[in-house]
Specification:
Helix content: 25-40%
Strand content: 25-35%
Strand order of the largest sheet: 4-5-6-9-8-7
CATH class of the largest domain: Alpha Beta
CATH architecture of the largest domain: 3-Layer(aba) Sandwich
CATH superfamily of the largest domain: Chorismate lyase-like
Largest sheet: 6 strands, antiparallel
């Protein structure tokens, strides 16, 4: 591993170190290989551990590294392309939408969700929890918020096992008029981190989708994806196969 000193560079120390480490990952490490511990790396490059952590966190954010419980920091495999474009004319829970339902309950909608749904703050909604897997790895979690007004035909008495299928079934009776999504970078909450096998606070990609029936918002989905292993794709043309670090290197 090269030992170029960040002090000789004009850019921030952590960013120069990130570049040096990225080059070393290309030349000297295999996917899944464990990096030396922070103390060894900091001593080798003559930097403070805080600077090293910044560089490692940046590489993790870019999908080059993974922090794994009980293992350490390893070289990440290439990101998996995950389509997040809703299928035209279909509601969540349609066949082959890629999600598996893991639970459903009634709870007060968070303030921003209530505002998006056009309901009173604190009003109870149906919350359908789902997970998405690629192979044997969970790459995404989701909470689908559905107000009572969107599922008026829902039976009053439902067992826990019947709740989610009934909500999704009733939702699909509505005529879907459109869906809009927004993506932002976030930090994994404890519950999401556990499902995604990440550390709390790890970078995640949050996709918020609003489903409309006529002029009303009938449901809101908040989906959380692993930022280190996922490349989110939109539309039906497939993913563009250019990774961030390769594009940066070419420039």
């Amino acid at each position: 591993m090269t030992t170029t000193r960040p002090e000789t560079a004009q850019e921030p120390k952590y960013w120069h170190l990130r570049t040096v480490l990225d080059d070393a990952l290309e030349r000297e490490f295999e996917v899944g290989e464990i990096l030396p511990n922070e103390r060894e790396l900091a001593a080798r490059f003559g930097v403070a551990r805080a600077t090293l952590r910044q560089a490692l966190e940046q590489l993790e954010l870019e999908g080059r590294l993974q922090r794994r419980r009980g293992v350490g920091t390893t070289v990440a495999p290439p990101r998996t392309a995950v389509s997040v474009a809703p299928s035209p004319g279909t509601w969540p829970g349609a066949d082959h939408d890629g999600w598996r339902t893991v639970g459903c309950a009634e709870a007060a909608a968070p303030a921003q969700v209530a505002e998006a749904l056009g309901i009173a703050a604190g009003e109870s909604v149906h919350t359908v929890r789902r997970v998405r897997t690629v192979g044997d790895r969970t790459v995404g979690t989701e909470i689908l918020y559905v107000p009572a007004a969107s599922v008026p035909g829902l039976p009053r008495a439902l067992s826990p096992a019947e709740h989610a299928p009934a909500v999704l079934r009733e939702l699909r009776l509505l005529e879907l008029s459109g869906a809009e999504s927004a993506v932002e970078l976030g930090s994994a909450r404890a519950e999401d981190a556990k499902q995604l096998d990440r550390l709390p606070g790890a970078p995640v990609l949050v996709v918020t989708t609003r489903y409309r029936a006529g002029a009303a918002t009938a449901a809101v989905a908040v989906s959380t994806y692993r930022a280190d292993t996922c490349r989110l794709t939109f539309g039906d043309g497939g993913a563009v196969d250019i990774t961030h670090h390769e594009a940066a290197r070419a420039s």
